[in-house]
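Worked example 2:
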Amino acid sequence: VHETGGRVPQEFGLRQNYPNPFNPSTRLEFSVPRSAHVRITIYDALGRNVAAPVEGDFRQGNYSAVWSGADERGSALPSGVYFARLLADPFSVDGRPESRVESTIRMVVLK
């Protein structure tokens, strides 16, 4: 994962991956308007968790990560529809709990 720069984001978000459809890898870009713990999880069409290419604490900014189209063991996934889901838990600034933020995109692996 690396920071991409650009304008300061105003909201959490997961942009559509590029390329899509893809083979063998794709770029996932996401925005963090304030410090948060972020996790991006990949699910198959049946809702099974197959990979988690991004997890960590991020400060405000725009980020990019490459997902290889592989599961957690490194095995290439078959052609099909997959979903990337961003979950962000913002860090509290004033001691009040922050609401979890979710965003999901649809991706296609084509072999």
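The longest strand covers residues 80-90. The chain has no helices and eight strands.
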